[in-house]
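Backbone-to-sequence.
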């Protein structure tokens, strides 16, 4: 008497990885998401490898996880993978305060982000 299995939200030629609770603001993380969106995975990995942004290491791990999910769980060809989607969402915000002059307090918000990466297999003859 269990509930029926939910249908897969992604297509048969897609795989997904979600990186949660990244300690960076969504605005800054979206810059890296824009950098890799729509590129082949090897070009996206190279861009993240030589990016000077601190969080690019974590984004690279997330992209590698999506590639591994595509290869191992859905048996897709790694050479034909393209970053179909890379979108950023907000996670929790830690609120802190900093002492200011005359007994006042300045608020500091330490934001966290979530990153979702979807890779899609595009056959080589379709790109030509």
């Amino acid at each position: 008497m269990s509930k029926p299995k939910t249908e897969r939200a992604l297509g048969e030629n897609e795989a997904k990885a979600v990186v949660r609770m990244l300690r960076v603001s969504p605005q800054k993380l979206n810059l890296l998401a824009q950098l890799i969106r729509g590129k082949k995975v090897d070009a996206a990995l190279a861009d993240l490898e030589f990016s000077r942004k601190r969080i690019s290491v974590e984004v690279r791990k997330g992209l590698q996880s999506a590639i591994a999910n595509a290869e191992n769980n859905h048996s897709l060809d790694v050479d034909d993978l393209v970053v179909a989607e890379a979108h950023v969402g907000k996670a929790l915000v830690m609120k802190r305060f900093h002492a200011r002059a005359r007994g006042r307090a300045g608020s500091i918000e330490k934001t966290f982000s979530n990153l979702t990466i979807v890779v899609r297999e595009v056959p080589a003859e379709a790109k030509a």
